[in-house]
Write a structure and sequence with these properties.
Blueprint (H helix, E strand, L loop, with lengths): L2 H14 L3 E7 L9 E7 L2 H17 L6 E3 L6 E5 L3 E7 H7 L9 E2 L5
Parallel strand pairs: 2-5
Antiparallel strand pairs: 1-2, 1-6, 3-4, 4-5
Length: 114
C-alpha cells in the first residue's frame, strides 16, 4: 500500500467518526520517522477509541497488519504508528496541553476536507 493511500484511508476513517480540527503534515524530506503526521481531536475517550478502531479496520481491509498503538483504554491521547503515517488522536484537553503541531511546523500542512 502506498503512503498516500494509507493517508487517505486514515483521513477517511477520522472523518467517518467525526474527528475534529484534523490536520495533516507532509514530512517527506524532513522527518526520517514518517512521511505524514496526522492529528485530530475527539470529544470523549469513547470517540477517541472509535476513531482509532476505524483507522485500524480500514487498514486491515487493505491488508496492512503491521502497526503499533501507544496509549491505554483510559488515555486522553492515542498514537497509531502505521509506518509512513503517524496518527495522534487527542481529547480537547490533551491536545491543548501537548501542542504537537509546534513539533511539525517545518512540515507542509496539507489541505484536507473534514
Amino acid at each position: 500500500m502506498e503512503n498516500t493511500e494509507l493517508l487517505d484511508l486514515t483521513l477517511e476513517a477520522i472523518s467517518e467518526r467525526h474527528g475534529e480540527e484534523t490536520k495533516a503534515y507532509d514530512m517527506r524530506g524532513i522527518s526520517i520517522l514518517a512521511d505524514y503526521y496526522v492529528i485530530t481531536t475527539a470529544g470523549s475517550n469513547r470517540q477517541l477509541h472509535a476513531i482509532a478502531n476505524s483507522i485500524i479496520e480500514k487498514v486491515h481491509e487493505k491488508g496492512k497488519n503491521d502497526y503499533r498503538i501507544e496509549g491505554s483504554r483510559d488515555s486522553n491521547w492515542l498514537l497509531i504508528d502505521l509506518g509512513d503515517v503517524v496518527v495522534n488522536i487527542f481529547t480537547f484537553e490533551a491536545r491543548g496541553f501537548y501542542g504537537l503541531e509546534k513539533l511539525w511546523s517545518n512540515g507542509k500542512p496539507l489541505d484536507i476536507e473534514e
